[in-house]
Amino acid sequence: MKIRKIIGEWYIYILMIVIWVIASLITPYFRQMSVFMTIIVFSVPLAIVALGQNLVILSGRFDLSVGSILALSTVIASVTMKNNLLIGISLPLLLGAVIGFINGISISKFRIDSFIMTFGMMAVCQGIGLLIRDYPGGYIPSGYINFLLKETRHIALTPLFILIIVLLVGEFVLKRTNFGRAVYAIGNDDVIAHRSGINVTLIRTAVFTISGFTAAIAGLFLSAVMASGDATVGSLYPLDSITAVVMGGTILAGGRGDYKGTIGAVLILTSLARIFNLIGVNIWYTYIAKGLLLLIIVAIRMFGVKEEREAVL
Amino acid sequence: MTGIGLKKRNINKDVLQVIILSSMLIVIILVAGILKPGFLTAKHLITIVHDTSILGISAIGQTIVILTGGIDLSVGATMLMADAVGAMLLGGQNRIIPILICLGLGLLIGAINGIGVAFLRIPPFIMTLGMMAVLTGSIFIFAKTCGFASPILRYLSIGKVGNIPILIIIWIFLTIIMTVIMRLTVFGREVYAIGSNPIASYHSGIRNRIVIFFVYVISGLFSAIAGLFLLGYTGVPELTYRGGGLGTDYTLSAIAAVIIGGTIFTGARGGVEKTIFGVLVLKILFSILTMMGMSGAGKLITQGLVVIVIVGIYMKLENLQEFSFKIRKWRLIRVKNS
To answer: Is residue B30 part of a domain?
Structure first.
């Protein structure tokens, strides 16, 4: 019983280790440290986006606008960092939070469906990004890039550090704070949460604000990786972050799940592309693997859930 | 006595929605006609509607899925799959079997979605998202962008009877058929019942799983049909990859059109006939913005804002209805007390 519980909680990491072991048995290139570091570096933006997405999904909604907020953040960083680094960092963050706040207030207060609201916001943000910069480019200071991506003996310490910090912060916020408990409560049943004294409107707005903010942080990191700003870079992120969150064990309807599983899923998703690349398989197989993994994991999990059989159908 | 008297004062949301949408359409068209004199000719309007019909056909399937409270993200991918496979197998000749294969593939994809959602109880969003990823991968691996549409398919897609393109007639025909099915048959009523409350429908003897399964099968079929007409319309297959999946543009436009039409995500409200308005508003707005010479960025911003504002207005209507309901309750209490 106890083993089953442990497997239920850590299955995504077991899967990750299995995939990594198989990959390193197949191809010797996968055993290099640099490959591992690439996986870490490319995991960081998705992991940060997925933190906000995880909160939103736990509260029972989606956020499709994360990708274009991220892209907008890279664009603004690439425009403003040239003059003043501080403004270049704070302006995207502020803008991300404001866009998230607009999302949140429309969804919680004016009761616009989250899918359609964030879908509209996605188009708006991408449009603004394209207005500012319709082709990739811009200037990111090399000191800033060095600070984030400097490698000492093939180990990029800062991304690894960021990943661990994000993991700890996410777990702490979800499991140890009143805010995290309120998010779970809203995700389970917002009417009951309201009756037990939680300010549902406030929490829901805060959740979307955080999601916009984290997307902007991810954009700042990504702008260092690309050393430029690109208004179309974020198109993968909304669906990928939802995939990661759901693969990591969070229920799409909200109220159940955690953040450590999401990080595991992010690592799997980013390493799949690397592995297929190193083995020399057509890169499009990544998509098939991603889709099948998602479906199989969710199907197995739903197979275990018996109590809801009556409720769903 | 009071009940009958007050019922008249109840605001009918459906009628209001249709009035808002059609008046908006008229205003948009008139404004465009004043700004650009070439716009308000019958020929141009027909061309726009002709452009719209492919999106309209794929939105029919999406509407039915959303009516059950689900969502189908694999619509665009299924469309482009039928597009690519059809072109590959047809090779510019009139053959019936490739078309049947395409429709069969659409049915198969729908059936797999249906099995996943109804029998394995995977949430629709996840099931169709995974399906989209799998389709995206397999199309880029196995399908080649080669081949042409057959002459008959091309005639059906771009040919005209008199002045009216055949595709518009097909679109209207399919919409009428689906409207009749949704409004007048047992199946349609079951779909609405499941959308409004799956547990209640289960206890009233509806076989939810079978109905949901067929809903996704129908959506897959309509996507495949739309894909074939897309092939006929463009003549050669196109594979657009954007936004993490194949044909995401088509999927999201279809969903946006359904929602603008007044079908709501929680299910059971709206209908296939309303989606026509949604599709038309979306496309006509787009074509007007293009005519104004607006850049892609401006179009994206306007599209996003319009979607948000229209859905915001619907939510206001909902609140209005709630408000009128409150007034009615309050009046009833007063009548009882006096």
So the answer is: no
pLDDT at B215 over 50: yes
Range of the domain at B205: 42-318
Yes or no, beta carbons of A313 and B212 under 8 Å apart? yes
Residue A66: name the closest of A224, A213, A262 by CA. A213
ipTM of predicted complex: 0.87
**Residue A220 pLDDT class (50, 70, 90 cuts):** very high
Q: Are B48 and B283 in contact (CB under 8 A)?
A: yes
Nearest residue to A243 via CA among B249, B128, B73, B129: B129
Q: What is the DSSP letter of A151?
A: E
B8 belongs to a structural domain: no
Number of domains in chain B: 1
Any domain includes B271: yes
The H or E element that residue B245 is part of is strand B245-246
Q: Which pTM value belongs to this model?
A: 0.88
Cβ-Cβ contacts under 8 Å for A35 (sequence gap 6 or more)? A29, A274, A278
Q: CB-based contact (8 Å) between A102 and chain B?
A: no
B208 and A130 in contact by Cβ < 8 A? no
| Closest-CA residue to B105 (of B233, B227, B236) | B227
Q: Does residue B336 register a pLDDT over 80? A: no
Residue holding tokens 């942080």?
Answer: A217
Encoded amino acid at A174, one letter: L
Q: Does B48 score more than 80 pLDDT?
A: yes
B-chain residues near A308 (CB < 8 A): 121
Residue B80: pLDDT over 50: yes
Owner of token pair 């129908």 = B218
Structural domains in chain A plus CATH codes = 19-301 (1.10.3470)
C-alpha of B3 from chain center: 37
Q: Which of A108, A276, A285 is nearest to A202 (CA)?
A: A108
Contact flag B312-A308 (C-beta cutoff 8 Å): no
Residue B7 token pair? 């019922």
Angle A236-A273-B135 from CA coordinates, rounded to 5°:
60
What would the DSSP string read from start to end of A169-210? HHHHHHHHSHHHHHHHHHHH-HHHHHHTT--HHHHHHHHHHH
Assigned domain for B11 exists: no
